[in-house]
Structure formats: structure tokens, C-alpha cells
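Aim 2, interim progress: modelling of the 2'-deoxycytidine-5'-monophosphate-bound target.
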Amino acid sequence: MPSPFLIVAIDGGAAAGKSTTARALSARFHFLHIDTGSYYRALTAALLRLGVNASDSAGVERAVANIALGTVVDGRRASITIAGDTIPEAELRGPAVNAAVSHFAAIPAVRAALLAYQRDQARIAREHGFAGLVMEGRDIGTVIFPDADFRFFLHADPEERARRRAAEGQQDSIAERDRLDSSRKAAPLLCPPGATDIDSTFLSLEEVVARVSEPIAARLGAA
Ligand code: DC
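Predicted structure of the complex, ligand included:
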């Protein structure tokens, strides 16, 4: 029997180890890797370029309705395009986007614009011949793919996460973003009921990857 197309959801706060884990799964199982945080960052960068303020929700709604979203697949990773262009990594991870992204991500029109787009990534993964997709974010197991084959929730102590970001050479207000992401009304950051909850504070990334990979390998071995 052919292997099933698998959907893996990884949620968690900033610098909880989601990206490293998702990249490792994508390499091991030939899954398309989708970092939805970078999608919210790209939309935020586009809105900032247009001079739209997050406190002006009607203005955000109007602007978002006119932004054309597309996808490019580069290796095993999908990236979002805005009016046909990808936004440079330096801008996506820069201080202006870091400071604004959680405010824009709390606006229902922004989340609605990305909802169908994110679900459609499963079609793109299939069309490109991937064995599945691994999608990381804040609401993947709760809202985007509540029926995903596997749902994981990663967390770690704030000090350890700040240390990880600093080791990447990045300045990021992790605690403030987590507070905003967890307390918003629209799709707040929370562990999906029934998801596997992993505290990565005292685990190496290899150990996290091993824990997450185990049930997937078992499922594929049994397919
Ligand atoms: O994963 P990240 O730190 O790059 O995400 C940036 C922001 O995007 C995060 O602070 C909240 C928002 N986000 C979200 O609201 N929902 C997602 N699925 C992914 C990210």
C-alpha cells in the first residue's frame, strides 16, 4: 500500500525549537516545510511598507484585501510571495517587523487572509510530490489543521528561549510577543487538546527531533 500523505502540526511560542524540529522532519520524511510565522511576518512587512497602522483595523482590512499572495517552493521549503516577490529575510526578521507582527496577527482580517492560503499548502505539497507537510506556527493544530495526523506543542522556559535567540544573533522581545499571542481573542497560542506537549527546556534539539520523529516513523513503517 502506498504511504499516506501526512500532515504534521507544530505549535509553540517564539524560539521554542519549532523551526529546527520542522526542518529536521522535512529532511527525514520528505515533507514540505512551512513556517507560518514567516507568512505573518511577510504580511506585516507589506503592511508596514504601505504605511498601514495596526491600530487602524478598517485600513488593515482594506489593504489586506488588495494584497496578492503566492507561493514559491525552494528545495523543501515553501515561501510566501507578495505581489509576486519574496520579502528579504533581513526585513522579515528585523526590529520593525518583530515589534509589529503580533499586533497585526491579532487582527481577524489578517488571520482570515491567511487561513485558506495556509490550508491550500497541502495541495501544493502534493503537487510537488512531497510525502506530507510539516507546518509550524501558533494555531496550526487548533485552527488550520485540527485533524492533522500529528500535532505537537513545544515550549521552553523564557530564559532558555532568549538564550537561543541571542545565540542566533537576533534581538527579539519573546516574552512580549508570547503575551500578545497568547492573550488575543482570535486563535490564541495554546496547546491543542490531544496534542503531544513537549517541554524542550532541558532537551537538546536532537532529543526533541527524536521524540517528534518516533511516532511518524512508526506510522510510516506500518503503512
Ligand atoms: O514564529 P514567529 O516567531 O516567526 O512568528 C511571528 C509572529 O507571527 C508571532 O509572534 C505571532 C504570529 N503568528 C501567528 O499569529 N500565527 C501563526 N500560525 C504563526 C505566527
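The pocket of 2'-deoxycytidine-5'-monophosphate is lined by residues 14, 36-37, 40-41, 101-102, 105, 137-140, 177, 181 (CB under 6 Å). The first strand starts at residue 6 and ends at 12.
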